[in-house]
Amino acid sequence: MHIRQAIIYGFGKWVDYTIDFSAENFLCIYGDNEAGKSSIQHFITFMLFGLPPKKRAYYRPKTSGKMGGRLTVFEPDIGEFVIERIDEVENGAASCYTPDGKTYHETWLQERLKGMTQAVYQSIFSFSALDLVDIRKMKEAELGEVLLGIGLTGSKNMYDIEKWLDTKIGELFKPSGKKPELNQQLASLDDLFTSLQHYRKQEAAYKDKKAAMFALTDDNRQLQAELEHMNGIAFRIEKKQQALPVFKAYQHELEQLDNYPEHIPFPENGIDRLEKLNEQLLPLKSELAVLQHNGNTYAEKRDAIRSELYDAAVYERAEAIMEQKQAYMEAQKEIDRLRDSIRKLELQINTELEQLNSGISSEDLETLHLPFHVEKTWNQLKIDMEQLTLTRNQLQEELQQLTKNRDYLKAEQSKLSSSLLNESQENMLEESISHYEQQKYMEQEAVEQTVKWQRMKQKKEKSNILWLGGSFAAATLLGLFSVVLNQNFLLALAVVSLVIGAGQWLSSKRNLQDIEKMLQTNETAPNQVSINDKLEAERTIEANHNKKRELSSINEQIRLNDTEFIKCEEKQHGLQVRENRLNEQIRCQHKRYPFLMQIDIMYWSELFHSLKQMVKLYRDKAEMKNQCESLLENTDQYAEMANKFFHEMNWESSNRSMEDKLLAIEKLLENRRDRTALIQQYENWCEDNEHQQHNMKQKMLVYEQELAHLLAIAETETEEDFLQKGKQLSDKQKHMNKMSELSEQLSQMLRNEEYDALLSGENIEESQLKHEYEQAAAKIKELGQDIDTKRQQKADVSAELGMMESSESYSEALHRFTVEREKLNELAGEWAVYKTAKEMLAETKRNYRDKYLGKVIEKTSRYFQVLTGGVYPFIYPPSSDKPFRAEAYDGIRYSVDELSQGTVDQLYVSLRMGISEAMSEKHRLPFIIDDAFVHFDPTRTKRMIKLLSKLSANQQIILFTCKEDVRESAGNVISIPHVTGSNISTSNFKAKQG
Amino acid sequence: MSDISFIHAADLHLDSPFKGLSHIPESIFQKVKESTFEALDLLVEQAIEKQVDFVLLVGDLFDHEKQSLKAQVHLRNAFEKLKHHYIYVYVSYGNHDFIRGNLHPVTYPDNVFIFPDESVNHFIYQKNGEMKAAIYGFSFENRAVTANKAAEYETIVGDIPYHIAMLHGSLHSNTEHDVYAPFHISDLTEKDFDYWALGHIHQREMIRHDPPVVYPGNIQGRNKKEAGEKGCYHVVLSGDAASMTFLPLQSIKFNQRSADISDCQELHQLESVISQTVTDGGNSMSPELLRLTLTGDQESLEKWEPSLDEVIQLVNETFIPRTGWKYIYQYSVEQTSPDNYDELAQGEHFIGELLRHIDDVSIQPYLSELYQHKQARKFLDPISGEREMRIKQKAKQLLVHQLFNGGE
Fold it and tell me: Can you give the residue range of the structural domain that contains A990?
């Protein structure tokens, strides 16, 4: 592979920079320190192998956005192709453009590089002065190994790695060590394993313990059963002991029972039933006795009252009297009332008659007759009389009125007549009015004249001015002409015309003033009649006219009044005729009813009513008197009847009023009524009593029958016998009860078979029972002790089991063991990695040495010989026991640590060149050397350059240097300008020839 | 037909140690040790709370290989607690707790019914004197049962509403685990059972819904493969319908988390990224054992790798004291673009030669120094092919890294 051209778009210091490497296979690139030489180296490796993102970022130029470039490369089997990498494009991946116009990617490029990576490339195909510095620091003893490593790999740290791996492996494990980690872990695992086994054994004992536990449980169960059985036996004996006294009591009761007959006839609950019957019957009996006594008392009382009463006839008569009593009393009252009314009426009549004072006595009333038409006649008379009087009065008033009117009118007439104006006055007034009218007219004329004058005056004034102006103008004209024409006459004419104008104007003016003055005098003529005077005159005349009209009206009224007066006098005459006729009728009435003469005709009508009332009252009084007398007759008859009854009864009747007598009779009747009621009451009581007695007896009958029945059953006659028999029966029952009670007790204490045996007469001795009991108790005690022992044993085993169950030792140990084992395995894995690495490295080294070392040494020897100027023609690689050696020209072999520093440097360089050349047989990559020869003297440098030129026939070599002498020695040099800051130009450098 | 309800659990593996925990502090160790028991206690609590009729435990209640008395005693105590609440327990033993291997004859209370041998038997569950369910099953007498036991299950005739089968075994096709009592799905579904309660596979799986054929998984994860929630099923059968609710029981959760550390510039950033990842799981109340994978580019990984042990220890220390503690028990680093040595291996240079050599050669002989060491070999797991590959890869990384270090 041959690099032809590098175009840097941007990389480190370089921006848009092109370097052409195509001139020669060996090319020296010269530049000062910091000129950017190493950037170019890095650029080339970047183009070939790419860079990780962080590195790319590091080489991104500060002054440009671009990062990347192209590398034109020649490959014999492909031709010239271009590798392009740009940071932003595909993460800096390569694009390769081949001559046939195809584009390839990174992978294609990698194939071309045949397994070369940047790191390997750096270690094989490029070296620098720094590598030498490191070599110099090596200890002499290690130097051989390091150099061998370099010989094999180009990398000087192979030896370090081997050493480091040994350390790591040693730290982890030594087959018979104690300290290393794995050894320690193994030791602790052994311990854990031992204790684990121990705990496992312990837990295995669990099974046996468990079996022992089961056996103990069984034993215990058997013992327990036996104990229960013995307890049962002891219990039965105790019961028998308790039963003995009860049995004896039972036998005693049995003997007692023999004293009673087998059968005692007696009703069920006989005594109770008897007592109950008596309880019911006795109260009934006593109640019946009381009832019988009451009945007798009632009958006695009733008979006593009955004997005290009169015969029935007496009472009947008394009742008849009492029946009429009411009528009698009412008659008496009516008589009193009538008498009273009569008296009152008499008084009223007399009083009213007196009031009338018409000379009529009460006796007269009896004969007085007043037919219905009288009233009407009297009324008519009265009305006529009134009308007559009224009409007369009216006429009288009318006459007076008419007279008064006439007087008044006459007075008015004379008054008006006197106030009227006379003829002369009136005329004078009319004259003054007409005068005023004339005057008015003249005034109007004067005004019109003045107006006319004014107009004329203006006209006149105007013409005056014209006149004046005209004359003045003419004068001027003439004046001008005279000046122009220089003719004086014209001037004179001008003066003349001026004078004429002025004179005309003055005369006219005076004229006007005269006329005006004249007109003013006209206006100031004297005014004879004023407007007020005129109005006054008109009003006076109007008033006079009115008065005249009034006077004529009054005259008319006087004439009408006279006519009325005559009519009134005629009416008065008619009235007199009617009055005479009325008086005739009055006289006729006086004749029939003389008492009327004393009464004014006006009251006749009222008198009629009073009289009529009076007559009625009188007739009422007479009626009442009749009634009163008839009543008196009735009462006397009744009194007679009462007196007769008194007499018959032999009662004291004298000095007793009718009321008292009647009261006595009434009392008699009342007494009878009371007694009769009493008798009736006793009768009722007697009847009730009878009924109750019957009921009582009915009730008692039931009980008495029941009682008899009871006695019959008990086969006894009396209650006493019955009771005795009852007691006998109850005693017998008591014995029987006691017996059954005892028997029940026995059956509870004893089992069935024991009970039966006892009752059937088994003989049991108390002492024998006691003996049996003691035997059983001893057995029980023995069993109890056995059980306790077993229980204790069981508790012990159980505790052991519990402890085992709660123990976590085995579990804990197991877990811990597992964890530690894991740890061991992990450490072992770690160890395995180091161990593998170490072994692999060693083996490969061996293999590689066999394969390549001969070739490398051969090439290295050549370089070394040239560099040392033939002092050391051969070198020998380390073999079995011998180190790296160099053979001098005289055949003496020196081991590397015996060589001088400079010679070692040369050996190093030779080794690097050697391996590079060896490798380049497969990987034909350019060899890049960065000032590796700084410490060489010029001679050696020249030799080196010469060697490189020769080498470059097969392999492109690019040498970077800042050494002048190197530059000079090298044939083809590209000088890099010293780049400062941004001063990087886009300049192409061509390799200088020669 | 009235409902019955029960809890279906399997593979309790009581007191069985966790795998893959090499460096754990004492407090976490104690919690790990108790975790299987805590899960069992929670199972009992749930059974009581849900008032189930009975509990089915389908094998592998404990491990004979690491048999501890504590496991069985704790189990007995749990059963006694269930007895107080009148809950029956039906137990069949599996390949880890097979009957003949039992060293500890712990007596269980009388609410526990154990299938006595390898022939399929049944128990009748009665409720209020009424026959409610027939429960079928068998127990492993020896470590292995290779016959198809599913074929032996037949429902009994009678007026019993529900037929429930307990089977500890695996599908014949499942080769990931030891195959015991192998069966085909059709073996189960063609029989007239209402529920197939399976055990043996630790990963929860509902194989069929009608009728339900269910692996409840184990109740507490014990290694990184048994990650996430672990527990049992609460099953209610009513008529033809079955409702199954998963109840998590685990006391500690195994989980795997990844964190990208490419962007970490400072040590504290690294710490906060890791802390963040630890709490990513959300439910901070549940204790977790975490396996952490740190990803990043080569550069950042190389930068931080030496500090990782320390930082993770720091993070662990902050999370250990919490109620829902978290603990990173293992971590690994993973390059975003993994090292690819294929290219390098083509080279004629030394590294190419080295890589080719590593690929070609078996490493076993190099390791016999330790792995055949008489003291060590009884505790060391043999190196599997997979493990060998991992070791080789690590060795390559190590060497390439070291050889290039300073080569620039």
Answer: 1-116+963-994
